[in-house]
Protein: N-acetyltransferase YvbK
Organism: Neobacillus rhizosphaerae
Amino acid sequence: MREVKLEAIETEKRNSFLDYLLLADESEEIVREYINDGEMFAICCEGKTAGVVLFTFHPNGIVELKNIALTEDFRGNGLGKLVVIEAFHLYKNKGLDKMIVGTANSSIDNLAFYQKLGFRMDEIKKDFFENYPEPIFENGIRALDMVMFEKDL
């Protein structure tokens, strides 16, 4: 199994990772709203930057997995799973209690991915993606609603 390392990205360097974030969130306008929030890490594997992951923080010991993106070369081999499991340990050790994540109703693969990692559906944010400048379609389905998941750490 591949080894993964998360390297913190300083706030002033985050814009240079914008293209990675856009792999998971198509709207540059929306990404720019949160790019400087929370903690962002480069996902390093085999001496290369495989992607990025960004976490934001909420009251009551909650961390949100806001964006996780892997380049195509690193997808489909369990690396994303390793990153999220590493984050479970990282934030549990920092004293946080719960991780949340949201994905579009149209993101079929993501809906399965998060459930396989032990997340449970918690909430539907209806019409969330109507705020996006351009409509998003995946799997022939328009992204309209945000499906929120949660997992105790």
